[in-house]
Specification:
Length: about 450
């Protein structure tokens, strides 16, 4: 039996490796369009910053490691068409010649591509001009080339989501003055505004210019520099800034043309529709990762491209392609980002997400120290707890605090509670660890849960 996976990132590699774990005798091939299998896209900002000193270190596994596990890699090979009846993929290899690669089972893991906002000049100007998108290792090399070959002293980052914020820190670490531009009224729009404001303050405290409610309309070259044109969305105040580098990181969209041309059903967001077993509905074809819909434990089917989810979905697809019947357990949308000395995290739903899903949400804010105040070094964590007022079920949690406050692990506790269907009161009841240098008898999350319970009683 031959399993072919298209895509060499999290979903495709996870599917391939899981198949080999289950049956070391199965023939497994991964086809990828570039030369960089199993690289951590999430680690790119830390290569730019210099925290990671060699791009090769971003590989979860090296090519020899993957091949030693029995997976054949077809690099620099672009899948052009899936022939369902013939059970083969038509592709072009490094030499440009067309070839046919047969399969018994196929996993489509083509991932996502960067969203391109309607900015005049974005199509005409590219890496050679200092205008960059960021999604692949190749994109990373382009940025490093710009930084290495030019005297880059300033940059404009269009987008203030996770990658945009991490790149603001990375470029600042290299001595570049950064202007961060976001069309929405706050940076990190996946958090409630009060917490997004804390992240904005952190950026400003490290010299980043924060421009929210600002839409970029155009980029042009002028006098050997780039000029970025835009305006605020509320007052129409002009934003014109000369700079050396422009980075556009405005999110991603699923890369589904290959599967769609083969007849796969797409969701309203353009992602491949799969069931919980990662089946596409096309014979012998599975799909996983950023190109597919995600089952959310509270929302049902949605589009939520996350690396952790892609790993899990790929594993399920690889297992089921060999005849198993495993189901993807679901996501809670847990995310975390480090922004200079601050960490912001969320899991579950916010009010505007919960209401359309049929919940009656209430979100309550609280603050608590990360450990007992009498032990030196205690720092404040801001937490927002969202629960359903009808059932008491925990729907979401958001946290912001300094790096030592273990925000990333506290949000994991909330994610586990949401995943298992606990109520806000049951979150407060959990038997969590405590010692004065590391925590309190009531953890930050539990302090937030108790604040929520008091507010819900008056609601």
């Amino acid at each position: 039996m031959h399993l072919l996976a298209i895509g060499g990132s999290d979903g495709g590699i996870s599917a391939a490796l899981r198949a080999r774990e289950i049956d070391p005798g199965v023939d497994v091939t991964v086809m990828l369009a570039d030369s960089y299998p199993n690289f951590s896209i999430c680690g790119i900002p830390y290569l730019i910053s210099g925290d990671v000193t060699d791009w090769r270190h971003l590989a979860h596994r090296s090519r020899p490691d993957i091949e030693a596990l029995g997976v054949q890699l077809m690099t620099d090979t672009v899948a052009r068409r899936i022939d369902i009846e013939g059970h083969h993929v038509v592709a072009t290899g490094p030499d440009g010649r067309e070839q046919r690669v047969g399969y018994d089972r196929l996993v489509v893991a083509t991932g996502a591509v960067p969203a391109r906002p309607p900015i005049d000049g974005l199509g005409r100007l590219g890496p050679a001009d200092g205008v960059h998108l960021l999604h692949t290792i190749g994109d990373t090399f382009d940025i490093l080339d710009t930084l290495g070959e030019r005297d880059v002293t300033s940059a404009v980052i269009v987008g203030a989501g996770y990658i945009g914020l991490e790149m603001a820190e990375a470029l600042t670490a290299r001595g570049v003055t950064v202007a961060q531009v976001e069309q929405l009224p706050q940076v990190l729009p996946t958090l409630d505004p009060a917490l997004g404001a804390l992240v904005g303050d952190e950026l400003r405290s490290h010299g980043v210019g924060v421009h929210t409610s600002t839409r970029i309309a155009g980029i042009e070259r002028k006098d050997d520099r780039l000029v970025v044109h835009g305006a605020t969305t509320d007052t129409n105040e002009v934003f014109d800034q000369a700079t050396d580098l422009v980075l556009v990181v405005a999110g991603v969209k699923p890369d589904t043309a290959l599967a769609a041309d083969a007849g796969a059903t797409l969701s309203a967001a353009g992602a491949i529709v799969v069931d919980r077993h990662m089946r596409t509905g096309l014979p012998d074809i599975y799909a996983a990762g950023d190109c597919v819909i995600t089952h959310h434990v509270l929302l049902g089917d949605t589009y939520l491209p996350l690396g952790t989810t892609a790993h899990k979905q790929g594993r399920v697809a690889g297992e089921n392609a060999l005849g198993a019947n495993r189901a993807f357990a679901g996501s809670t949308g847990t995310q975390v980002v480090k922004v200079f000395d601050l960490v912001a995290a969320r899991t579950g739903l916010r009010d505007h997400e919960a209401i359309p899903a049929g919940f009656d949400p209430l979100t309550v804010a609280a603050t608590a120290d990360d450990h007992k105040a009498y032990y030196p070094g205690a720092q404040t964590v801001h937490v927002r707890i969202t629960g359903d007022t009808r059932t008491g079920r925990l729907l979401g949690a958001q946290l912001v605090g300094p790096i030592p406050t273990a925000v990333h692990k506290r949000v994991d506790t909330a994610a586990a509670a949401i995943f298992t269907g606990l109520s806000v009161a049951q979150l407060s009841d959990l038997d969590l660890s405590y010692t004065p240098p590391l925590g309190s008898p009531w953890d930050v999350l539990q302090a937030g849960a108790q604040t929520w319970e008091r507010a819900a009683a008056l609601h």
